[in-house]
Amino acid sequence: MNREVVLTALALLFSICVTQGMAGSRTSLPKDVASGWGNVWLKSMENGYKPYGFKIVDSQTAPGPRFGKKFIKFEVRPGDCGNNGGWDDCANDRERHELSQNKALQKHGDEYWYSWSIFVPTDTPSISPTKVHLGQFQQKNNNVLLLMSWSLAGYYIDNQVPGNGYTRETRNIIPQRNYQGKWQDILIHTRWSHSSDGFFKIYHNHKLKYEYAGQTIAKGDRSFFKFGIYRSFISRYKNRNEVSEAPKQIVYYDEVHRNRSLSKVDYVGIAKWQEKLAETGHYTGKIDGLWGGGSLKATNAWLTEQGYPNVREYSPDLWRHMIEAEQ
Q: pTM surpassing 0.85?
């Protein structure tokens, strides 16, 4: 075989490997599961990312989807640490399988609604005092802004704005006694700002659980969303329990949406709202989670009956009114 043939074959092999490597570090998610983020997600620590790290599953898999037909299963087993060329989880006492937003990152002046539903099985153990993060808003050039984490107390947020590596405050969102074994619905309304006009409003099952006003992103930076299972300081669990490894953990996600309008992310909430209106005899349409003319007409009929002003848009105020009416 002459030299030119060998060089051509090697170049072709290199091209295939690079292409496969790039394809292997990226994935798409069905719109039934996620929307509003762009159509490509990155696998965090793609070198060492296991095939079981995340999977798209359907109604044949327990616990079944929160809404629609499909959902996501994340799994981390002992030793699931990888690297991305610039960071090595294995050398830094960490294990993870996450997906990371890759397009249309958040920047100063953006205002968005975010939704996701999360299910932690009852047989998935807590590994405290190891930190287990189930979602985060990270920055391109600075540290994390907002962590969604799990401890013995339950599901909590860790506000680290402006990303200098220090916690500003934490707040428990879901107590541990109510956390595992059921779908939990999270909504976040955010104005991204490097000034004082930013905010976070975090809802659990349509009840406001945390509110923060002020800077939400470092000046000149952009933020991106990551979700899955990220375990940091594994040695803390191993040392406390005198074991060689931390146990496997599984978490399910569904309805991971981003939009400037609440009605375009909260399909779960709108479906529940339609069900409540149907129970009161005001709504006779399909329970589809879509905010349209029929839902609006039924909503305003109910609001008028209860003595509340009519609305044009779907908002958290509707859930507050419903809670008040049921008391």
A: yes
